[in-house]
Design goal:
5 helices, binds adenosine-5'-triphosphate, about 300 residues, alpha+beta
Length: about 300
């Protein structure tokens, strides 16, 4: 496994696109203080997945984008591509050459690629786990770091040996798994909370459902009773109307009888009237005769 090429653009002091080819053997970069030598190392750390800005001597991630000089305007993007040969297959990917790329925009958006295919930062970090490269390893030793390792406490030195012996990969995986377990634990607690909340809601809904059922039953009973009442009223109405019809018939019969009686009475009256007028005529005649006789008597 060997670095083949490093391309830097917009990263810290690299305003121009810069390509460094690493030939077999040792490559040394020489330059005066502050000319940007450590920026090259920072770019390598960064493209390999470093996510702590302080480890690449920055406050925040935008600080690594070229921020301009008196003569040059600032840039809005920083990008680094690192090509590594993988002939021995130490990097767990089926390519003999691997190019990892990282880009960051001033807006804060980031892009990551492995052999030009977009991926996540995590994929890049995982790719180099156990290879000795990658964040937190001692493949890259910055200024003053050797002193720090030699003078560090046994616990801190132990981390160096763990990394060197390759178990750091498993320790990191263990940490990751423990973190995931903690997350699962948190999810479980949340699910428990949600379950008890849902249980409470279910109880309330059950109470409401019982009320609704009772209401429905009573409503149906009410309808039955109303129907029964209407039928009863109809029936009693029938009886009443039958009685009235009978009464009506009786009254009609009485009316007919009375009318007949009236006609007979009218007839008798007419007969009587005729008799009366006949009698009156006779009275007139008798009076006439009486007067005639009286006159005769007087004469
Ligand atoms: P030394 O030998 O002192 O360690 P060096 O050669 O390693 O120095 P670096 O520390 O890599 O140099 O580079 C520092 C230079 O990078 C400074 O001139 C600094 O202004 C410049 N620099 C850092 N960040 C940016 C940025 N975002 N934009 C422009 N220039 C930057």
């Amino acid at each position: 496994m060997r670095f083949k090429k490093l391309e830097i653009f917009g990263f810290k002091s690299f305003a121009e696109k810069t390509t460094i080819h690493f030939e077999p053997g040792v490559t040394a970069i020489v330059g005066p203080n502050g000319s940007g030598k450590s920026n090259v190392v920072d770019s390598i750390r960064w493209v390999l997945g470093e996510h702590n800005p302080r480890d690449i001597r920055a406050q925040k991630s935008e600080d690594i984008i070229f921020n301009g000089t008196d003569k040059r305007a600032p840039l809005s993007v920083a990008e680094v591509h690192l090509t590594i040969s993988n002939e021995q297959g130490l990097i767990p990917i089926s390519f003999s050459e691997v190019t990892v790329s990282r880009k960051v925009f001033r807006s804060g958006e980031s892009q990551y690629m492995i052999n030009k295919s977009p991926c996540r930062l995590r994929d890049i970090r995982e790719l180099f786990l156990g290879t000795g490269l990658g964040g937190g390893t001692y493949a890259i030793i910055a200024q003053g770091h050797i002193d720090m390792v030699l003078s560090s406490k046994p616990d801190e030195r132990r981390i160096v040996f763990e990394e060197a012996s390759g178990i750091a990969k498993y320790l990191i995986k263990k940490r990751e798994t423990t973190r995931r377990l903690d997350e699962v634990e948190e999810h479980l607690v949340r699910i428990e909370d949600i379950t008890s909340e849902v249980r409470r809601q279910v109880k309330a809904l059950e109470r409401q459902a019982n009320k609704a059922r009772l209401y429905q039953e009573r409503w149906e009973r009410l309808k039955e009773l109303e129907l029964q009442l209407a039928i009863d009223e109809l029936k009693s109405g029938d009886v009443r109307s039958h009685e009235l019809e009978t009464q009506l018939k009786e009254l009609k019969a009485k009316q007919e009888a009375l009318e007949k009686h009236k006609a007979e009475t009218v007839n008798s009256l007419e007969v009587c009237n005729a008799a009366v007028s006949e009698a009156q005529q006779m009275v007139q005649q008798v009076r006439g005769l009486f007067v005639e006789h009286q006159n005769k008597i007087e004469q």
